[in-house]
Amino acid sequence: MSLTIKCQLSLVRIVRKKVASSHNGDSASHPFWLWLFSLSMSLLIMRPTLASEKPDFNRDVRPILADKCFSCHGPDQKHREAELRLDAEDSARPDGIIVPGHSEKSRMIERILTSDPETHMPPAKTGKTLSEKEVQVLRNWIDTGAEFAPHWAYVAPKESSPPSQSVGANFIDFYVAKEQSKRNLKSSPPADHRTLIRRLSFDLAGLPASIDDLKKFQDAGPGKSTADYVETLLSSDHFGERMAVFWLDLVRYADTVGYHGDQDHQSSPYRDYVIDAFNRNVPFDQFTREQLAGDLLEGAGDDQKAASCYNRLLQTSHEGGVQAKEYLAIYQADRVRNVSAVWLGATMGCSQCHDHKFDPYTTKDFYSLAAFFADVDEERHLKGEGGDNIPTKRPPEVPVQTWRERVRIDALKAEIQQLEKAPVNAARDERLKDARRRLESLEKNRRLVMVTQALKEPRTIRVLPRGNWLDDSGEIVTPAIPQFLGSVSVNRRATRLDLANWLTDPHQGVGGLTARVFVNRVWALFFGAGLCRSLDDFGGQGESPDHPELLDALALDFIRSGWDVKHLVRTIVLSQTYQQSSQETPELLERDPDNRMLTRQAHWRLPAEFVRDTALSVSGLLNEEIGGPSVHPYQPEGYYRHLNFPKREYAADKDARQWRRGVYVHWQRQFIHPMMKAFDAPSREECTAQRPRSNTPLAALVLLNDPTFLECARGLADRVLAVEGQSDAERIRDAYRIVLCREPDDFEAKTLLELLAAERQEFSDSPADATSMLTAGIAPQHANDPVEAAAWTSVARALLNLSETYLRD
Amino acid sequence: MTPNTLNRRTFLSSQGLGLGAVALHAMLQNETLGGNAAPLADRSGTDRWTGLSDVRHHPAKAKRVIYLYMSGGPSHLETFDYKPKLDQLNGQPMPESFTKGQPIAQLQGQQLKVQGHMTGFRQYGQSGQWISDFLPWHGKFVDDIAIIRSMVTDQINHDPAHTMMNTGTALSGRPSMGSWITYGLGSEAEDLPGFVVMTSFAGRNPQPISQRMWGNGFLPGRFQGVEFNASGDPVNYLRNPTGVTSEQQRRLVDSVANLDRHRNLQFHRPDIETRISQYEMAFRMQSSVPELMDISEEPKEVLELYGATPGDGSFASNCLTARRLAERGVRFIQLYHRDWDHHGDLVKYMNMCCGATDRATWALLTDLKRRGMLDDTLIVWGGEFGRTPMFQGKGGPGRDHHIKGFSMWMAGGGIKGGVSHGATDELGYNSVEDVVHVRDMHATMLHLLGIDHEQFSVRFQGLDARLTGVEPAAPIRSILM
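Structure tokens for the assembled complex are given below, as produced in the milestone run.
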């Protein structure tokens, strides 16, 4: 197998050269090279399979059929050609199309191999062709019995006994080692301490580790230290903030309505609910119920109300001339796309207009799922109650206190009680007054949040033929889950709560699938890629998992633990697989090019929010307050000039809110903060399961010139200058420790000393520039000498522009 | 590290930081479809994207696009679609045969009556095409443009209609046409983004416009449209922090590059070189963009041709900047003029809009033509929809949104001049002859750029996503040279 990969690699090299050398001419004149190239690449991205294995239908065969055949011979009944369906056993076999054991007698193979353009499959007009390798897989599969298997994702996770291995920290390592050993591969050595704690801190808190963390870690001694550090991080409130960034992308949380005037709506208590839920370790099944059906739960309190804002997070509009009927159709489709994407890893959007071409979702399924939400009260803004104001109205909205606010209130009440009993004196009176004032302000300042309230009479939901909202000819549907996945058995109209229960019930529902989808995405947070690479598509066009047994084991363990998210995270990060080095050796790159066998950890640039948080953290400016209304960092003037109804004036915060974490930054769907955008944060108009990671000049301009980053550099310089009596070299060492948790080597120290000297000279020559540079932002400046402060700010800017500063590896 | 190993490494790493890696990952996914192949190797040694190697399906007629986006929905009945019958029925009830069961925007529930043309029409040029009196300068280049009088779209409200016109669907999250095109063809610009957007308005309270219209959707971030601002910093964060000189910024960028390269000696991560090259580009943009945007260096005669005053942020200045962008190799240039939503006081606002755009449009075509650039530059003019043949009176007479028939035009790179395509019915309501959907317009644009729209796809959520979507679409053959 390694030999095969090597051959492919050298082929790629040759082809690559060939393509490169032809680029000045018309590259299309080299179809042969391109063909070879594309063939070799298609082999490359396949999981390294073992030559001796019999083709596995789901792993090897289905992807080929799904891609090349299902669009005409798949689940979509209306567009099915020749009544042939290749996604299910009984329909594929008749008429000698597939003759198990005999590829040479199977008409399918004959039609693929024929040179007659009239009968050749796939037809030329599809633009699809089968590679020689793919044809061979199909032949092998037929020759070895043509066994079909249901799509992996729709089969409940299977228990398997973990492979017995002597190495590894937990079952994750056992499964990984088993797959690796089949291919004569093994994991990389453990990452060094510094890398590991930076990795853990970025991954679990979204913030950089400090040099103190490292010291404590090293002092604690081997074994215990990692577990202790992980527990510290899991019990820190930053864990919830970190996880919220991930969840809010999925549910498309934002501070504005998204369409047309993109006015603010009331949603921040939902964001805080998510943060609190992860911190309180609310079990994921309960988390699901509270969001989909918080209002239907017995004794629903403020948390459940805030959670039910999930159903209201979608984009809405009250643009002049909207028709309520059309927009209700848009909203219901949006909801079906999101629920199915978030919990089922499905791409049901296609079935709004036609049966899904690759998965068994029908149009009726689409509208039946929509019918669960037919009771969501949401029409009022379409009928005159929305307004061109900031914030606009999206009734129903109710005032709530978040869990954290209630905790604070309880603490204040207790404090007040204590103080009331204390001996009367001026200090006590002052404290009591202060506590009462804070209590009053907390109790008074309840934030509004859009909530789900059930209408007495749910709207009538019809199948909309071809998605056309003007067409009333479709059948009326009632709430039902996709038919091929079973049914919800209740003797009344099924509710959103039934849906939530079905999603998380591993026995009567699709809990196994939901668990897989979730653990796979959580895995990707800690490895950069899922065990199933297509985080957003567990359907027929998605990839099948590289480690199906491990994925199942994790999903089942997650369910058994009571949907305990912290348990899941702990299990993953305590594995040796997680803790190994991310160093890519030439050998690993050749033998496990895409790291599908997990022979190393991965490295990536932090997500947008954590880029911001990291700069704020090392500068000493970070405001660690949790929750509250969204905040407004500095933003280029006029950035909102295309918004209207009403026209928008952006007012940057002028106090410590300026230094709050990225998760709290005001999310304007039509114009998300340019820093966030430059670092690939999504607009949150639709579900995002995986952000891209780009590398653009716009991102460079942010780190170079955004006032926030300049202010951070100023703060960092201040920090370094605050220690008196240090040499320049010592200060550079301190800066490296603060920012990167390590000491600079000679080259690095020399480079920065040279930069410092040049900047010192520059600013001494024009001290006005130094003063002017130090005006960035509103943070106070402690260092007295402007030339020194400015020169060190330049050094700090260099550190805040390093790739390594934002690298999780 | 030799360039060869660098390439190979870039190639194999799909989980690193590199944009190249991300794009490649997307392409690798495509590979299994036999879809788009790898990018052409870079010409400049920087990290410039030069496009996919296999989307040039046939010889291109156009190298670049300048899209004059008349945002708000210009009335076809006061620009390019002359209907004598409309004047005859002026003020009478709109025949129900036209409107029954049709989607209606602000006129919901109101009595519908016919509104005749609010201006005169006359024939111009060799071709004798009818143009309204609001657009006298269009009369001068009517023989260079192909007018499509039978456009239709699916969306009747601004926001979704813009999304439809720009991305081919009303769903959020899809790449805009400019992103598709820069992804497919790359850019020839050394120091500039491949897809640039500029906006203007001339006084009316304009409809909002979202970044989604030039968004990259599921494509990598480098393919997003970059907005150049007419005032303030031309690009966000383009200006050095106060007190920092260009030399200091250079020194900083160099120090960062040296430190990054040095650290990378241990790790050999190819994305570090990508990042360094992006910093270089950022630094170069800090001088190239202000230089580009400074039209005051243009000869007086050119400024007068456009009617542009440097720094005024007008459509005219944007047109001149568009020419400068085109000269520098930018692939897709989109100018939004945001004043065209005329529910009432249509005459007043048409005078304002046409006053701001008519002459500048003529100047742009004239200037490109005399520089020999019109032949390989595709110009597109149009809004997100048209306006009703029915009266709406918010203030003086106006017209509501209309999606069943409206006009656009194309010119330059590969387009036949002096022709028209399609027609609406006698009242300008329904497109009835050679109907052109937004998708067909997109297919035409791609065709002229050498791309077969059916074969230009990216795997997204299990589908081969295309700009033209899944419904049938075809280039408008009759207007092609």
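Chain B touches chain A through 115 residues (CB under 8 Å). Chain B has one domain: 37-239+297-479. Further analysis is deferred to the final report.
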